[in-house]
Amino acid sequence: MRVVLVTYGSRGDVEPMTGLALQLKALGAEVRVCAPPDFAELLVDVSVPLTPLGWPIRALATGAQETPELDVTQTSAWIRPDERPLPAGLEAFLAAGAEPVYVGFGSMLVRGADAQEVSRAVTEAVRAQGRRVLLGSGWADLALIDDRDDCFVVGEVNQQALFRRVAAVVHHGGAGTTTTAARAGAPQVIVPQVADQPYWAGRVTELGIGTEHDGPTPTAESLSAALKIALAPETGARAAVVAEQVRTDGAELAAQLLLDMIGRSGSAG
Questions:
Q1: pLDDT for 262
Q2: What's the angle, vertex CA 223, arms to CA 221 and CA 227, rounded to 5?
Q3: N or C terminus of the chain: which is more exposed, having fewer CB within 10 Å?
Q4: pLDDT 10s digits, 80-138
């Protein structure tokens, strides 16, 4: 069995990997460690092959190596084309009236409210704009609040196909959902919860293709106010323009760069 251990940090990060590597070797595994080049001697001492990873950590820590100098290529998003058809029930709902507003928070729980509160708030907000409601249940467990026929719930679905057929997308601001909505030309309202989501909310606002919700917990009033911006004709027009500018060759470019790098490494070796 072959095992690759990867770490990037100081001696305190690399040393534990050497202990694990030695135990794996004792159990018969072939082990290699990917770590900063500073620790080549340490790995030689324990007879574990090192694949140098990144810049020397000492140079970065002391400021001797300036960062934007790193050999980095920024590709566009890495996208897997989704060819799945939409469920028959969803197709029927879409065909039964005007474009709905999609609301879904993916693999996020909404902070500060339970599923029933959020479901009621987002449904009332969309209805206040005179729109039909399409709820993505997700981990937030969004669900119907009544039996009116202007609301429909879906689970995991082909968003690449769906977002081209909605009036707007209300979501948590994950990179994937943001990109999918932008590619589809769908105006967005982002209700950021954690991590990079505030960044994406800011970018959507700056680009004029939607707006950031004020805070992580939507109410009927706050989300309705945000939807007024997203559903404005000028926002939709801007979203359509930006959709044409979103590149879709990121995965292809990244794969080619990776193979080229491996090829150069092999030639050098």
A1: 79
A2: 115
A3: C
A4: 999 999 999 999 999 999 999 999 999 998 988 899 999 999 999 999 999 999 999 99
List the beta bridge partners of residue 190.
171, 212
- Nearest-Å Rg of the Cα atoms of the chain is 24
Strand partners, 188: 169, 210
Beta bridge partner(s), residue 33: 5, 50
**Nearest partner of 108 among 13, 196, 230, judged by Cα:** 196
Angle subtended by helix axes 233-243 and 175-184, to nearest 10: 100
DSSP 21-73: HHHHHHTT-EEEEEE-GGGHHHHHHTT--EEE-SS-HHHHHHT-S--------
How far is residue 15's CA from residue 20's CA, in Å, rounded to a whole number? 9
Q: Are 111 and 139 in contact (CB under 8 A)?
A: no
Q: Are 2 and 30 in contact (CB under 8 A)?
A: yes
Give 120-172 as a DSSP string: HHHHHHHHHTT--EEEE-TTTT---SS--TTEEEE-S--HHHHGGGSSEEEE-
Residue with tokens 């879906």: 154
- Rounded to 5°, the CA angle 154-91-114 comes to 15
d(CA 115, CA 168): 21
Give the pLDDT confidence of 108-123 residue by residue, as tens digits.
Answer: 989 888 999 999 999 9
- Whole-number Å distance between alpha carbons of 86 and 18: 50
Residues 6+ apart with CB under 8 A from 35: 6, 7, 8, 13, 14, 17, 43, 50, 52, 53
